[in-house]
Design brief:
The chain is mainly α. It contains 4 helices and no strands. 73% of the residues lie in helices and 0% in strands. Helix 1 packs across helix 2 (33-50), helix 1 packs across helix 4 (66-85) and helix 2 packs across helix 4 (66-85).
Length: 88
């Protein structure tokens, strides 16, 4: 999980999702505040993992690790893309 390819995937995913939220805010219009907070936490974790930072403590390693980043960013991609593919 801490290979160069995994870090590239994290950094690119976080960059795409952060850019989408910043450039096209209506995409997140249907997300609740709590879910949006989790998606943004995933973006932050993706950036942290993508730039190569490895936290020392187990708590931060789990919160900012690649697994939590990918799960939360995946949730964001699915919830943002859902209305465009299934319908509003």
């Amino acid at each position: 999980m801490y290979t160069r390819l995994a870090r590239i995937v994290s950094l690119l995913s976080a960059s795409v999702l952060a850019t989408l939220i910043t450039v096209y805010p209506p995409a997140i219009g249907r997300l609740s505040h709590g879910v949006l907070t989790l998606v943004i936490l995933g973006i932050c974790a993706g950036f942290v993992h993508g730039v190569g930072f490895d936290p020392e403590t187990r708590f931060w390693r789990v919160i900012l690790g690649p697994v939590s980043a990918w799960v939360l960013m995946g949730l964001g991609f699915v919830l943002i893309a859902k209305p465009y593919f299934i319908g509003a």
